[in-house]
Write a structure and sequence with these properties.
By secondary structure, the chain is an alpha+beta fold.
């Protein structure tokens, strides 16, 4: 994401094009009347105790790891240099007596001690995740999400090379321990230095003198160097944030110049203050509205709907996170789809866990069958009547049916049900029934046969007494194991459980389901409470494969609100209930008086808190711009605001004045520029204002795509557009798998412009002898004897006198992407000797997205795309960017193009089988020849399906690393940046309590308000 991007919704559809609906949404009051269900009647303000008592046992998920360094300015995680001694302290939060403290340092080394503080030094550069644990005297090992700490080890600090800019090596030291630290105390001295280590490669350019300047609180204001190097030392005289900026650059002919700057945002704390977190500071400020949260979010047009089966692209997702519950909840870690990554919500335990085995005698996982026992403490609450009633398996089944029923139309990934559909119902036939049941077979029988309620084969007898029954999912879609199934159910977009009776009473029903009243549980169709009955089997058999067509077509006829009666009128079981919502204004919440903390996770990280321990009211304003939020912050009235990157200077000023605190965390959202290998030229002429000379298959040539990849000016884009005032809005990465997803992110493959020795992404390498560089690719694609030869640039083809014009579009109203494309175009033109230029033009986001739906027929040649994680598994990204006919690979026709005869020659290429050696062969090649790209692609696609269903997660990570290497060599996209989540809170708010869950949607938005704490909030 560039620094000036507007707010985007999930999955890349911009809310900036949403229509602002200037109407007030009235809350519809549900009907009265109840029916009996397992002798349960609606109650009001029910309290509960743990049953069985083991459910209240203290959790072993209670260890924290403290590392006394924090990320530096412009960084997302803490940095140390190789061979630097690094201390870390392990602390248990419980009352257990500790026998041994241990730290797995992530590099294959584990140390243990009777002392809580251990030290280590890393010998090699790389990204590592430290994990602390303790063993108590009873032999129980205590771990937890708070015991994880990522660390980035560099060979040196800050060596960057930047294209037509000079290359500059930078350094920062606080005068004592060295390293890249943003914290010092009053009286400390910090030193910043830099030297030129290379001149611009273009003739006629020379290095300019560098200047280092500091802000207020620094005794020395600036220092200019002689041209080759510069050093400045500052004595910190006052508390607060001091920005120290290095400015360098180069001068060229005709008065042209380029400048580059690095900013260190140094927080100066009071003497003796703990150096704990970036931008934290002592404050006596208290909330101006105790026990309430007032938030401002930039979300033009507001939400599309609040219905969890319908909202997938807008801020309505955030509302669902707070008013609904899932069976289980993601616990904030980023290491994979196994049970340790989740905590119970509606369920009593997470299937597969030792906790389930302790409660029920088995882990509740049998092959592909996952069984969830529902807790008696989970209750829906209707604010219009004050009634509450229990959550039952029928509600869960009803909710999942609605998700899967709307998984295919108007296209996959338009609604969130595709996630669960892929695991439950398998693939559908696109040539049958008008394509209504494809890509997922969501015919009635396929959906209904995927779930079982209170089936004694899977549901323990005790679940019917200590819990409210069971629901079992047969996660065997298309005969494939789905180890990521827990991830799907925990996702706030796909796994929310709604009250079936209330929904039906308000006009949002499922065929065959009925209710006698809104505030009441429902039985399954046929008047039964178990699917293991004749009545249920008769119900399933009563539907033909096309019986639900008209119901499922609501996904088209009611798009985008789905079922309008429940679009902005919701009832749930979460920590808050919905008071009101208006897409033109915002929404308000109140604490649910009948909410009880899930007993299965009490004391664990990310367990929902008990009623009364979080803010009572929440008011969120959805703004077109950030003006009102900034004004509220200046007035000391805002608990949370999102500031547009264009106003970063204002945000930094408010932070320096201690009117705001910064909240910064990496997300798993990624951006790229995608290539279309089969352009619809007729459609292109409708939008492209320039003369068109590109061919429909121009980008099917792998040599050209490789050249464009390697010509992308990563370092320049990072320095000019992704960093503002020391705030990093995005950082360069490689491949389709983002960082912070455990061991999945591959660091052992070659990405364009990636310097392995420094761990930095640079600008194009102009050395034609370096395999994979832009100059090397250009030599190859223009050489008839090369396997990468591109005949389009042969005799009579594209040349400096007849340049190829590549249409490159940016979102209308987004000048930053326009600038990025122009910068990229200048590199491409220079490196190709003028034989290639970009025709840069704007197109409305809605048009861009509308052309992503069909296979082929897409007019765009190069366009910007974004993907946000639904679950912590690489397949979520592969399915979009790489899988045959995926969300982005379909309009780009990767599969269709790569399998054409000219691009798929197994007899010549070999290594076209399904063996591991076939995958590793292609992953280890320096490049992939033109006629072998189909072979390599099909091998990678096959192994993606294997890795996706591999229950051995460590083994799966190795497989994904190899798949990523092949994907990278295919040069199908430029992976530009991974997004940081940047927002601010009032000085009384604890910034560590703000949701930094990397999977909760778009950066800086979609917050679980019940986590937020601070002076006066609870």
């Amino acid at each position: 994401m560039s620094a000036s991007d507007g707010r985007l919704g999930r999955r890349g559809l911009s809310t900036t094009v949403a229509v602002v609906i200037l109407v007030v949404i009235l809350v519809v009051v549900g009907g009265a009347g109840y029916i009996g269900f397992q002798s349960e009647t609606p109650s009001k303000h029910v309290s509960t105790t743990c049953s069985p008592s083991t459910a209240c046992a203290s959790s072993a998920n209670d260890v924290s790891l403290f590392v006394p360094i924090q990320p530096g300015a412009g960084q997302t995680i803490s940095n140390v240099a190789a061979n630097q001694s690094l201390p870390a302290t392990v602390t248990p939060s419980g009352s257990e007596t500790v026998k041994t403290y241990s730290i797995n340092w992530g590099d294959g080394t584990t140390t243990s001690s009777s002392s809580p503080t251990l030290t280590h030094s890393y010998s090699s550069a790389g990204l590592y995740v430290m994990e602390g644990s303790v063993t108590d005297t009873a032999g129980l090992v205590h771990t937890g999400a708070s015991g994880l700490f990522p660390i980035d080890v560099n060979l040196s600090f800050g060596s960057v090379a930047v294209g037509t800019y000079p290359s500059i090596s930078t350094s920062f030291s606080n005068g004592t321990t060295g390293g890249y630290e943003p914290w010092v105390t009053v009286g400390s001295t910090v030193t910043v230095g830099a030297s030129y280590i290379g001149s611009p490669p273009t003739p006629g350019w020379s290095n300019s003198p560098m200047t280092i300047s500091g802000g207020s609180g620094a005794a020395q204001k600036s220092n200019s160097g002689p041209g080759s190097s510069v050093t400045a030392s500052y004595s910190m005289t006052a508390t607060g944030t001091v920005n120290i900026t290095l400015t360098g650059g180069s001068s060229g002919p005709n008065g042209a110049s380029h400048s580059i700057s690095y900013t260190w945002a140094v927080y100066v704390g009071a003497a003796g203050s703990p150096l704990g977190c970036k931008y934290c500071h002592p404050s006596t400020a208290t909330s101006p509205h105790p026990n309430s949260i007032v938030a401002y979010e930039v979300a033009p047009g507001g939400a599309i709907t609040l219905d969890p089966a319908g909202d997938y692209y807008s801020v309505g997702y955030e509302v669902a996170l707070n008013i609904f519950q899932n069976l289980i909840q993601y616990n904030g870690t980023d290491v994979g789809p196994a049970y340790p990554n989740y905590v119970p919500q509606i369920a009593t335990c997470v299937p597969g866990s030792p906790q389930c085995a302790s409660l029920y005698g088995n882990t509740l996982v049998q092959g592909n069958n996952y069984t969830f026992v529902l807790a008696k403490t989970a209750k829906f609450y209707d604010p219009s009547t004050g009634n509450s009633w229990n959550v039952y398996p029928s509600d869960v089944m009803f909710s999942i049916i609605r998700q899967v029923a709307f998984a295919d139309l108007p296209a996959s990934a338009i609604y969130p049900g595709w996630m669960i559909a892929q695991a439950l119902v398998g693939s559908g036939n696109p040539n049958w029934d008008g394509g209504i049941h494809a890509p997922y077979n969501n015919t009635p029988q396929a959906i209904l046969d995927s779930m079982m309620v209170n089936d004694s084969q899977f549901c323990p007898a005790s679940a019917m007494t200590t819990g409210d029954g069971c629901i079992t999912f047969d996660a065997n879609g298309a005969g494939t194991t789905w180890p990521a199934f827990l991830s799907y159910l925990s996702n706030g977009a796909a796994g929310n459980v709604v009250p079936a009776g209330w929904y039906i009473a308000n006009g949002a029903t499922v065929p065959g389901w009925t209710t006698t009243g809104a505030d009441a549980p429902v039985e399954l169709p046929g008047g039964v409470t178990s699917t293991n009955t004749t009545a249920w089997q008769n119900y399933v058999a009563s539907w033909s494969p096309t019986s639900w067509d008209s119901y499922e077509e609501l996904a088209v006829t009611d798009y985008p609100t789905l079922e309008p009666n429940v679009a902005f009128n919701e009832v749930g079981s979460g920590p808050y209930y919905l008071v009101s919502a208006n897409p033109a204004i915002g929404y308000s919440l109140e604490a649910n008086p009948d909410f009880v903390q899930p007993q299965g996770c009490a004391g664990a990280s990310w367990c929902e808190p008990a009623y009364g321990s979080y803010a009572k009211t929440v008011t969120v304003y959805w703004e077109d711009q950030d003006t009102e939020g900034i004004e509220a912050a200046q007035a000391g009235q805002a608990d949370y605001i999102y500031v547009d990157p264009a106003d970063t200077a204002t945000m930094v000023a408010l932070i320096q004045k201690e009117d705001l605190k910064l909240v910064e965390a990496p997300s798993t959202g990624v951006n790229d520029f995608s290539y279309n290998t089969d352009i619809d030229l007729t459609a292109l002429k409708t939008y492209d204002p320039y003369p068109i000379n590109i061919q429909s298959n121009t980008l099917s040539y792998i040599g050209l795509r490789g050249f464009l990849d390697a010509a992308y000016p990563d370092a320049s884009v990072q320095a000019e557009f992704n960093q503002i005032q020391g705030i990093e809005y995005g950082f360069t990465y490689g491949g389709f798998i983002p960082e912070y997803m455990g061991s999945y992110y591959p660091t052992n493959i070659s990405w364009p412009n990636y310097d392995v020795s420094t761990g930095q992404f640079t600008n194009p390498n102009t050395d034609a002898s370096t395999v994979g560089s832009a100059a090397w690719y250009w030599t190859q694609l223009t050489s008839p004897s090369s396997p990468l030869y591109d005949p389009q640039f042969g005799t009579g083809g594209y040349s400096a006198s007849n340049p190829l014009h590549i249409p490159a579009l940016y979102d209308l109203g987004d000048p930053t992407h326009q600038s990025v494309l122009n910068l990229w175009s200048s590199e491409v033109s220079a490196l190709s000797g003028g034989a290639i230029v970009f025709d840069v033009f704007p197109v409305a986001t809605a048009l861009v997205f509308s052309e992503l739906i069909p296979d082929g027929g897409t007019p765009w040649a190069i366009y910007f795309s974004i993907w946000l994680a639904d679950y912590a598994q690489p397949y979520d990204y592969w399915a979009a960017f790489g899988a045959p006919s995926g969300t982005y690979s379909a309009p780009n026709t990767f599969y269709q193009t790569f399998t054409e005869a000219a691009n798929d020659n197994p007899s010549t290429c070999g290594h076209s089988g399904d063996g591991w050696s076939d995958l590793t062969y292609w992953a280890s090649q320096p490049y992939i020849p033109q006629d072998c790209q189909g072979v390599a692609y099909e091998v990678a696609a096959y192994w993606a399906s294997i890795a996706n269903s591999n229950l051995n997660l460590a083994q799966g990570a190795v497989q994904w690393n190899q798949i990523s290497a092949v994907y990278n060599l295919l040069n199908v996209a430029v992976d530009t940046e991974q997004l940081n989540s940047i927002a601010t809170v009032g000085p009384w708010v604890n910034p560590a309590s703000v949701d930094a869950n990397t999977l909760n949607g778009y950066p800086g938005l979609e917050i679980v308000w019940y986590e937020m704490t601070g002076n006066g909030l609870t």
